[in-house]
């Protein structure tokens, strides 16, 4: 009985290390993979996407694993479905795009400044 208790005491650090790796590495990776799979399965015509190369576009057609993405008026590219990364409306993108887009008031004042500079 004493030998079994000694063996169990020796395995505790190993069990703690395995639990740490599971909660620190494996579980978040599975969560991220499930989120990506849900995005790809819910993908439909009219969705905005970002490709693996960082190109923003609008989904025009989905045929199996091939997705036709409009990246500019009249410019449609075909990419593999796995090359689509995420919708551009992720939390981080929303915050940065809100800050970078000027309001109408700022746009008008910027136009006035350039007009004044042109007059001088």
Describe the 3D structure.
56% of the residues lie in helices and 23% in strands. With 120 residues, it is an alpha+beta fold. It has a 5-stranded antiparallel β-sheet, covered by helices on one side. The longest helix is centred in the N-terminal third of the chain and has 41 residues. It is rod-shaped, with a radius of gyration of 26 Å. It starts with a helix and ends with a helix.
What's the short version?
By secondary structure, the protein is α+β, with helices and mostly antiparallel strands.
Radius of gyration, rounded? Answer: 26 Å
Helical residue percent band: 55-70%
Bulk shape: rod-shaped
Order of helices and strands: HEEEEEHH
Q: What is the first-to-last residue Cα distance?
A: 95 Å
Task: Average the pLDDT over all residues and give the rounded result.
Answer: 79
Separate helix tally: 3
Q: Find the count of extended strands (DSSP E, 2+ residues).
A: 5
Main-sheet strand order equals 4-3-2-1-5
By helix and strand content, what is the structural category?
alpha+beta
Query: Stretches where pLDDT falls below 50 for ≥5 residues?
Result: 93-118
Oligomer: single chain
Q: Main beta sheet: strand number and arrangement?
A: 5 strands, antiparallel
What percentage of the residues does DSSP assign to strands (E)?
15-25%
């Amino acid at each position: 009985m004493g030998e079994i208790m000694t063996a169990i005491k020796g395995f505790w650090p190993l069990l703690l290390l395995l639990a740490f790796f599971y909660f620190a590495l494996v579980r978040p990776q599975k969560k991220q993979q499930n989120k990506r799979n849900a995005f790809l399965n819910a993908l439909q015509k009219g969705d905005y996407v970002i490709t693996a190369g960082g190109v923003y576009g609008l989904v025009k057609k989905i045929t199996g694993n091939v997705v036709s993405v409009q990246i500019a008026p009249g410019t449609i590219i075909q990419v593999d479905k796995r090359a689509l990364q995420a919708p551009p409306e992720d939390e981080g993108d929303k915050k940065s795009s809100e800050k970078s887009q000027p309001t109408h008031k700022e746009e008008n004042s910027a136009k006035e400044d350039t007009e004044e500079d042109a007059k001088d």
